[in-house]
Write a structure and sequence with these properties.
alpha+beta; six-stranded antiparallel beta sheet; 14 helices
Length: about 500
């Protein structure tokens, strides 16, 4: 493959190798035209050892055929399928950016995490691309029933222009494929993002396996943890088939509606999930309406703030489009970093042992070497991010002493429901799977507020009522006495009348 970098393939001139996988190698290439026209493209070339294997050739052709029929801004565009001297190649648009997996790695290195609004906007764009793929029709006008089957952070690209794109339909399931997967031929996709029915094979899969995978991706984006961190394949399968996952709200401060939407996408039964990716988008938008305010310019600025150094190095090495190309975007990275990310500090130090609390592992993906790390206090961040974050503020000068504060009356001890106690920091047992979340401890009232006595519960040890029914009010007692007096007078008057009549 090294020789391919110094020559042409078809009408394209290979300029650099971008990445290499088990089935194909991805190159950056240029297409030249009249009057000095040139355009960067990405070319996926089938490896030499597989170029004579008919099954792999059919899979490669299937990928080109399926992806070329999908027309949507959130799906990487396929330009051409070519063949030269028995070597098949696939020409597609070049997206200058990083995969979501790499983006999360860089965020973790800088101790930052996406806000719910930013994470939801990115997943909504990816969902729109998947929905377009699911609705793709063939030449006969019938739905091709495309299922990606490999939705994961590695197959979601974030472009420097703020675009989000789905890639790699190499193992997608669709009608009229040349290469059909035999039953029992093995799992297709990444184990840790598979739905239960995709793992077991006990039922026919549909587009809802991609919705499940999107739910896993969003769960990990919000919590900065792997849903199956540290588990072997057998343990992952067991956990996924049982579909007993902790809600993301157990690890991150997110709206309850977003918690519910994600847990619904992660339902064990497909019937309990959103029917399609578009319905999932509606649920996410309803839970986090402010996600609509995150536009592509802000996402582009965030990309530059987090991955700008990496992208600049790649641009120099490969001759790709420079990372920043507008004056407007160059003034926004600091603002985007502060508005679309928050400090990634885990407040739950005693997280349940049955739930992995480890952040994204640096060893899970191959990343470019981000060197020259410098210390900014208790964390290590890249120089670019350190320069964008505001300097630590010095403590304010001493002022007049605050008003004296009287501690509030402690509340009576109440029994904590079992489901909530299991997800309380330091609690025992497995986390509640019904959506219970950790709640912050009650805060003391401010110094200027008069403490209010805690309400007493009837029949509690601190209650003033020891036993018997609660006493009636004075008004009710007076009415009861008046009624008795009236009845007595009526009886006396009636007896007097009867006596007079008998005389």
């Amino acid at each position: 493959m090294a020789s391919l970098q110094s020559r042409r393939i078809g009408p394209y001139e290979i300029t650099a190798e971008l990445s290499s996988g088990g089935m194909a190698t991805l190159y950056l290439a240029k297409r030249f035209g009249a009057a000095g026209f040139q355009r960067n493209v990405a070319i996926k070339v089938l490896k030499d050892r597989l170029a004579r294997d008919q099954s792999f050739i059919e899979m490669f052709v299937d990928e080109a055929t399926i992806a070329s029929r999908i027309s949507h801004p959130n799906v990487v565009k396929i330009d051409e399928l070519g063949e030269e001297n028995g070597r098949y190649y696939l020409v597609m648009e070049h997206v200058h950016g990083v995969a979501m997996s790499e983006f999360l790695m860089l965020l973790a290195r800088n101790h930052r995490r996406l806000t719910p609004a930013a994470a939801v906007e990115i997943v909504c764009q990816a969902s729109a691309g998947l929905h377009a793929a699911h609705e793709t029709r063939g030449q006969d006008g019938q739905n091709l029933n495309v299922i990606h089957r490999d939705v994961s952070p590695q197959n979601i690209l974030l472009g420097i222009t703020g675009d989000v794109k789905i890639i790699d339909f190499g193992i997608a399931k669709a009608r009229d494929r040349l290469h059909q997967t035999d039953v029992g031929a093995g799992l297709k996709g990444k184990l840790r993002y598979m739905a239960p029915e995709q793992l077991t094979g006990h039922r026919e899969i549909d587009r809802r396996v991609d919705v499940f995978a999107l739910g896993v991706v969003l769960w990990e984006m919000l919590t900065m943890r792997r849903l199956h961190q540290g588990l072997g394949d057998a343990a992952v399968i067991k956990k996924a088939v049982e579909a007993k996952f902790p809600p993301p709200g157990a690890f991150a401060d997110i709206p309850y509606g977003l918690d519910a939407a994600i847990m619904r996408a992660l339902s064990k039964e497909p019937e309990n999930r959103p029917a399609n990716a578009r319905e999932f988008v509606k649920e996410l938008r309803k839970a986090v309406p402010e996600s609509r305010d995150v536009d592509t310019v802000e996402l582009a600025a965030l990309m530059w703030a987090v991955a700008g150094d990496v992208l600049e190095e790649r641009a120099k090495a490969t001759g790709a489009t420079p990372a920043m190309n507008t004056a407007e975007m160059s003034t926004m990275p600091s603002k985007a970093l502060l508005e679309l990310t928050v400090a990634n500090e885990d407040p739950f130090e005693d997280a349940p042992t049955t739930v992995s609390s480890a952040p994204f592992s640096m060893d899970e993906f191959e990343l470019p070497n981000v060197s020259n790390l410098k210390s900014t206090g208790p964390m290590m961040v890249t120089p670019q991010v350190a320069n964008l974050l505001p300097a630590a503020k010095s403590p304010p000068p001493a002022s007049a002493p605050p008003r004296p504060f009287s501690p509030p009356v402690p509340e009576p001890q109440r029994a904590i429901p079992e489901a909530i106690r299991n997800v309380t920091p330091g609690g025992s047992g497995a986390p509640n799977m019904s959506g219970a979340r950790l709640r912050p401890p009650p805060q003391a009232p401010p110094a200027f507020a008069s403490p209010q006595p805690a309400p007493r519960l009837p029949h509690s040890p601190q209650s003033t009522y020891v036993s018997g029914p609660p006493p009636r009010s004075k008004t009710k007692t007076a009415l009861l006495v008046a009624l008795v007096v009236v009845l007595c007078l009526g009886v006396l008057i009636g007896a007097y009348a009867i006596t007079k009549a008998l005389q």
